[in-house]
Amino acid sequence: MTGDELTVLVDRLRWDRRQDPYRGRREFSQTARQVADECDRLVAEARADLTVPVLRKAVDRITRALMYLDDSSGIIGDDLQELMDLYAKACAAALPNPVSLAGWLVKLECDGPGWPRIRLAGFAPALGERGIAEVERLVTERACTADPESWTAAFAVRDLREQLAEVSGDVDRYVAVLAEHLTNAVQYQRIAEALRAAGRWDEAIDWARRGVAANAGSPYTDRLRDLLVDMLVAAGDTSGAVRVRWEEFARHPTTAGYRSLIDTVGTAGGDDPTARAMEVLRDRVDQQPAYASELIDVLLEVGRDDEAWRVALHHRRWLGGPQWQTLLHRRAATHPEEVIQPYRDLVEQAILNSADKRRYRQAVALLTALRAVYQAAGKPAAFGRYLAELRVEHKRRPTFLKTLDAAGL
After folding, report:
1. Which H or E run contains 400?
2. Is the domain of 202 the same as that of 222?
3. Which domain holds residue 228?
4. End position of a domain, from candidates 318, 349, 379
5. What share of the chain is helix, strand, coil (3-state, %, to 5)?
6. d(CA 183, CA 170)
7. The whole model's pTM is what?
8. Looking at the 3D structure of the chain, how many domains does it have?
9. Residue 186: inside a domain, yes or no?
10. Is there a smaller number of Cβ atoms within 10 Å at the N or the C end of the chain?
């Protein structure tokens, strides 16, 4: 494909803001992918110079289009990111004017809508020292002129400063810039990973410990904690690794935390933590009954089904539907008569749940399981009588009866 043909193709990426945001999205995405395929082929054929202006135009047009078309699926956003990364690859091969490229990147980051993601490391070969210096100058200028009340402006400047520090190769500079904004576990993780990659393990472990302590309740801390445990094991501090898992489990005893504890003990060595973990969970349930669901899951995981059943009966209100059904299914294998009434209660709840359009299908699925329970209990005829009673009770629900008939129960 020639440069002129590529230009014609990219012209199809225009999007009229007055256009229906839901119509033409598939064709638009197909065009974006075609542009990417053609440009990727040209770069591979050492003809990247043809693709550089085309890819920038494509990125600009899709960036604007995403402000007006619906992309709830994220497909076109992915297409845009692919083109942006391909543009970096093409620039590295064709080497456009580095000052112009630097200006475009900073403007897109600071004045754009927030997409696509700019990865300076990908553009660094094309920018070279001159382009990187221009990015530095422009970012410093933006930092001085940005609206202090604008979160987006502050984020753009901070993101570019962090990326500039990263591509500089100066680990201390990178850590210092990241440390200016220690608002979540992600920043600590990036610091720890950079120090670990530089072979500075003690510092990496120290930063990871600090991050875990400062963000104990954040869901983003899980990955940082995993990193800390991995580093401790690799450094030979296996008891320290297990201690990190115990500290988290004692703070927030969950099934996921138990599994992490078991995995770490299996890797690092040590006594089976199950008995102690159960004590922690039982004590927590006494204080906070909502943890009963976690205790039940762990009991089921270690094969203590009888105890799980007793806990479930005592703390039924804290169990979700799927967990309760799992318990009923497992209890039915050994004590079918005990689960007949609970299954019947679930069937009734499903039928009466007017907020769920699929309630009748769910009720029938439960009835199928209940029939098996009756049979296991040696009472198949009793199920037939129950089903007849159910039909009479809900005779004013023709849709339910029709769904029941279709199931062939």
Report:
1. helix 398-407
2. yes
3. 172-236
4. 318
5. 75, 0, 25
6. 22
7. 0.86
8. 3
9. yes
10. C
Please state, in angstroms and rounded to a whole number, the distance separating the CA atoms of residues 224 and 265: 18
Is residue 345 domain-resident?
yes
For residue 311, the domain's CATH number is 1.25.40
Q: Tens-digit pLDDT profile for the chain (409 aa)?
A: 766 788 889 999 999 999 999 999 999 999 999 999 999 999 999 999 999 999 999 999 999 999 999 999 999 999 999 999 999 999 999 999 999 999 999 999 999 999 999 999 999 999 999 999 999 999 999 999 888 788 899 999 999 999 999 999 999 999 999 999 999 999 999 999 999 999 999 999 999 999 999 999 898 999 999 999 999 999 999 999 999 999 999 999 999 999 999 999 999 988 999 999 999 999 999 999 999 999 999 999 999 999 999 999 999 999 999 999 999 999 999 999 999 999 999 999 999 998 888 999 999 999 999 999 999 999 999 999 999 999 999 999 999 999 999 988 8
Last residue within a domain, chosen from 270, 285, 318: 318
- Whether residue 253 sits in one domain with residue 207: no
Q: Are residues 214 and 284 in the same domain?
A: no
Q: Amino acid identity, residue 48?
A: A
